[in-house]
């Protein structure tokens, strides 16, 4: 897509708006004009308390121009940045809607966390009903999506009031290995024999980093609230290696004091009774057993390499393991799926009565294998995906689940969302803390991202967030881990502990 932007507005933000109507578009300078390559010109100006934008979009021989304008008094509590984004959003939304005859369900909300806007509205005294109306009328959000966002926000607020976030943090531990690569996956995970052979060396290095990060946490006087072991597929580890990993965590923190301890088992073909017994022994309170679909044909097409029967076997093992909470993931809108298949999967999962169900909308990144297939394209309206997502929301509600966290991704079928549902009291706390940036997340391992949050007071906003990245691939992590952990005095690179300490010292200032 050819995009030009004028005025004091983020070009990246405008790109995310354009992706609502042209999913999968690229914005490189090498893009060439053609009837099949959309073009957009967006201009923003501010005149006193008036924020005005114009968007002109051309595609397949048609051109449409629309404007977005609002005054400060229209959204009194909004910042200048928010007002500018709303004006530009309205302009692009109007032009895209008229040009393509398509209305994005989330209106002009493009961010990862649509419930954040709903939370801000509730906390500024608007109440539930008025917050829904504002999302609908000012942000053009579909009424059902507005209700969902407000419901998630209300649940998150209730959760954060019920747990202590003062001087607490969470820890994420990355196990970036899988038995095979799913066709839609964009996570960095080792699947080849060569990469899987690195596991022993990887764990040896990871254990040093686990010791180091917990030492840093203790020096800061923080209490660990949740631990999340993710991937990849952590249960790709042998029982011996899994025991060693969990023992290393237990060496550093009293696991009985944790509000939640998650092991993202994920792939049914890696789950055994012995591994679950080890997890229960070391205090794991939450596991995921994720089929994504209960269609053997689809499982083959997306490269899962396990069967529906294997999922049921793994789920039964998890249910009998003594672990408190089980999460099951499904994906709506998988290539080749339809509403009939999805509804069968949804009903079957509900019949198992897990405490957590997460429904993802199919999203594909540039690195995913399926994106590289000739002829692959994301369908604008989402096809059966929108109907499937709506069905999941209705069925979970009727079964006694409530939505407790939500996020969105770029290039998602139908511009839809990912939602976590739980029975009351069984919500995945780490998901809420991480997604809503309520306290610091200390992360170790390949592709792990430490997210330092300026303060831990729930929902009062954060003035500063700092992210610290580790190398993506296991071999890069092994190469650089010691330098990251200890720093490099010769070239002036501070250690991880020094970076974290510097952030917290600056916070006190």
Question: How is this structure best described in words?
Answer:
By secondary structure, the chain is of the alpha/beta class. The protein folds into three domains: 1-102, 2-Layer Sandwich (Double Stranded RNA Binding Domain); 107-150; 163-452, Alpha-Beta Horseshoe (pyruvate-formate lyase- activating enzyme), CATH 3.80.30.20. It is 40% helix and 20% strand. It has 15 helices and 15 strands. The chain has helices at 11-21, 80-100, 114-138, 143-162, 193-196, 199-219, 239-252, 273-281, 296-301, 308-319, 339-352, 384-398, 429-435, 474-486, 496-508, and strands at 2-6, 39-47, 50-59, 62-71, 168-175, 223-231, 260-266, 286-289, 325-332, 356-361, 402-407, 418-422, 440-444, 449-453, 465-469. The strands form three sheets. A nine-stranded mixed sheet has the order 11-12-10-9-8-7-6-5-13, sandwiched between helices. Strands 1-2-3-4 form a four-stranded mixed sheet. A two-stranded antiparallel sheet has the order 14-15. Strand 3 (50-59) and strand 4 (62-71) form a beta hairpin. Helix 6 packs parallel to helix 7. The model is unreliable at 456-462 (pLDDT under 50).
């Amino acid at each position: 897509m050819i995009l030009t932007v004028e005025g004091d507005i983020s070009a990246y933000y405008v790109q995310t708006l354009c992706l609502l109507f042209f999913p999968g578009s690229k914005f490189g300078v090498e893009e060439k004009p053609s009837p099949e390559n959309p073009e957009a010109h967006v201009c923003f100006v501010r005149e006193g308390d008036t924020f005005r934008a114009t968007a002109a979009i051309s595609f397949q021989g048609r051109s449409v121009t629309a404007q977005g304008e609002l005054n400060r008094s229209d959204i009194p509590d909004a910042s200048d940045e928010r007002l500018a984004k709303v004006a530009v959003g309205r302009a692009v939304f109007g032009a895209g809607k008229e040009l393509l005859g398509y209305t994005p369900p989330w209106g002009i909300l493009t961010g990862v966390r649509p419930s954040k806007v709903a939370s801000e509205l509730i906390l500024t005294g608007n109440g539930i009903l008025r917050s829904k109306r504002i999302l609908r009328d000012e942000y053009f959000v579909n009424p059902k999506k507005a209700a969902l966002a407000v419901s998630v926000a209300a649940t998150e607020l209730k959760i954060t009031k019920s747990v202590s976030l003062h001087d607490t943090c969470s820890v994420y531990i990355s196990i970036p290995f899988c038995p095979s690569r799913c066709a839609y996956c964009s996570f960095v995970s080792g699947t080849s024999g060569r990469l899987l052979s690195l596991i022993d060396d990887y764990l040896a290095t990871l254990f040093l980093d686990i010791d180091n990060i917990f030492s840093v946490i203790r020096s800061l006087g923080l209490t660990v609230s949740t631990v999340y072991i993710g991937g990849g597929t952590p249960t790709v580890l042998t029982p011996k290696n899994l025991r060693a990993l969990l023992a290393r965590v237990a060496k550093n923190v009293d696991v009985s004091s944790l509000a939640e301890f998650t092991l993202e088992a994920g792939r049914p073909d890696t789950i055994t009774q012995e591994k679950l017994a080890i997890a229960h022994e070391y205090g794991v309170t939450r596991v995921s057993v994720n089929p994504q679909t209960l269609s053997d044909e689809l499982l083959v097409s997306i490269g899962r390499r396990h069967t529906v029967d294997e999922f049921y076997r793994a789920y039964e093992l998890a249910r009998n393991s003594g672990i408190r909470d089980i999460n099951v993931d499904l994906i709506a809108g998988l290539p080749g799926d339809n509403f009939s298949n999805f509804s069968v999967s949804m009903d079957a999962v509900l019949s198992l009565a897990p405490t957590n169900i997460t429904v993802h909308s199919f999203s594909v990144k540039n690195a995913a294998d399926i994106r590289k297939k000739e002829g692959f394209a994301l369908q604008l309206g989402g096809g059966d995906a929108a109907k499937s997502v709506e069905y999941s929301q209705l069925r979970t509600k009727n079964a006694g689940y409530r939505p407790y966290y939500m996020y969105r991704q770029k290039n998602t079928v139908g511009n839809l969302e990912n939602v976590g549902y739980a029975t009351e009291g069984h919500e995945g706390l780490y998901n809420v803390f991480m997604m809503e940036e309520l306290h610091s997340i200390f992360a170790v391992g390949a592709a792990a991202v430490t997210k330092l949050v300026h303060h831990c007071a729930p929902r009062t906003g954060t003035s500063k967030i700092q992210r610290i990245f580790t190398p993506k691939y296991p071999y890069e992590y092994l190469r650089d881990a010691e330098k990251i952990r200890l720093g490099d005095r010769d070239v002036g690179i501070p250690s991880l502990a020094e970076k974290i300490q510097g952030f917290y010292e600056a916070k006190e200032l």
